[in-house]
Amino acid sequence: MDKTQPRILLLGGSPQQVIAIKKAKEMGIYTILCDYLPDNPGQFVADKFYNVSTTDVEAVYKVAEQEKVNGILAYASDPAALPAAIVSERLNLPTNPSSSVAILGIKYQFRKFLSDNNFACPQYVTFTPKTSETELKELISKFSFPIIIKPTDSSGSKGVTKIESIHHNLDEAITYASQYSHNQILIAEEFIERGFPYVIGGDIFVKEGKIILFGEMSCLRDNANSALIPIGKKKPSGLDNQQVTIVHKDLQRIINALNIRFGELNIELLIDKQNRVHFLEIGPRAGGNMIPIQLSDIFKVDLVKANIAAALGIHFDLSLEEQEGCFMHYVLHSYEEGEFDKIEIAPEIEKSVYRKVIYKTEGDKIEFFDGAGKAIGIIFLKFNTIEEMEYFCKNHEQLVKVNLK
After folding, report:
1. What is d(CA 230, CA 396) in angstroms, rounded to the nearest whole number?
2. Cα(85)–Cα(68) distance, rounded to whole angstroms?
3. What is the pLDDT of residue 392?
4. Is the pLDDT of residue 156 over 70?
5. 19-32 pLDDT, tens per residue?
6. 111 near 88, Cβ under 8 Å?
7. How far apart are CA 282 and CA 78, in angstroms?
8. How far is CA 356 from the centre of its chain?
């Protein structure tokens, strides 16, 4: 073993996380991977693989201690972010405070933090799957509808239901949310009426306690099928200068309050009719759906490399050079089940597609798209004008088709 070679423990080996494993190896770093799935693709890329759960703190600690790692990275993984922080603290490795990571990663703790620190926050209550429909109706009796019911510890919009009235079948929403909850604590909160039409998503990057990259983007969603699940992100976001200033100020205020020192964080927020920022989530990790790759293209940097360097405590430079044009990514998905055949892209937009990442090969099983984990792949597009980008957003189903056998 080369004792001078940095060693990093990566938590999660999904197709999206393979990017980080490959990048670390390019940087000359010895890569150790933990993943509970025995067929994860990351194990075939990493230098060493342990078939253990990334959410099992003691198992992760044992691996990290045994391998004498210099840093731990939960790249694009909400569930693994807190174990990474806890184990890093135990081993005196670079990390943000685990208490802050817990607040960001668990929705009801985050809601309490927002309320306690004078951020805009909807009314909410927490409950468990054992709560009866009658009890829940009593808890939400003074709420303004519609409301959202969701798990407090999931990601990728899994287990989320919008309830239009108190007469809605709440049992179904509770059952659905509990399927995606590890801690079995659920939350019901008032739906926020938007002043700006889109959910704002994307990532930020923090260095020495200061946000040095603001990557806010508008989310594309399929209102006809899965209105709560993002299927793309686009930049420019469409926010006006005043809204951008408010968003940036509130984001930095959160970073200050939680003493976040470094790394990439995933954001999701709304702006209401009073121009107040409502933070839906701030994930203490890089965004999924290859958001770091998209932002790297936009700002001409390498965010994956920056994440790895930060986790190891290695100095890195992040000089931003924002590119002209309109950038977006589009998540390939299907609302039908079957076997994958091919992706068909209309000739009129083919020139705008500059990268394709397809997770599936011909004959692979395709599942109904109800969360980011069911994505088939991602395509990256660059348009010359906002009008061209909006044309794609309005006609994406006709312009990009997933063909099944």
Report:
1. 13
2. 16
3. 97
4. no
5. 999 999 999 999 99
6. no
7. 10
8. 20
Percent of the chain scored above 70 by pLDDT? 98
Query: What digits encode the pLDDT tens for the residues 171-199?
Result: 899 999 999 998 899 999 999 989 999 99
Cα 151 from Cα 126, distance rounded (Å):
10
pLDDT band at 229 (very low <50, low <70, confident <90, very high): confident
The total of other beta-carbon atoms located within 10 Å of residue 249's CB is 10
Query: Using CA atoms, how far apart are residues 170 and 129, in angstroms rounded to an integer?
Result: 11
* Residue closest to 202 by CA, chosen among 276, 299, 316: 299
**Number of C-beta neighbours around residue 19 at 10 A:** 20
Q: With beta carbons less than 8 A apart as the criterion, state whether 6 and 24 touch.
A: no
Residue pLDDT, tens place only, 254-279:
999 999 999 999 999 999 999 999 99
Cα-based distances in Å from 130 to 107, 147, 298? 19, 19, 46
C-alpha 142/C-alpha 123 separation (Å) is 9
Cβ-in-10-Å burial (0-12, 13-18, 19+) of 112 comes to middle
Residue 32 burial (10 A CB sphere; 0-12, 13-18, 19+): buried
- Cβ atoms within 10 Å, residue 363: 9
Total number of residues shown for the chain = 405
- How buried is residue 344: exposed, middle or buried, by Cβ count under 10 Å (0-12/13-18/19+)? exposed
Which tokens in the block code for residue 45? 């890329």
CB–CB of 84/94 below 8 Å? Answer: no
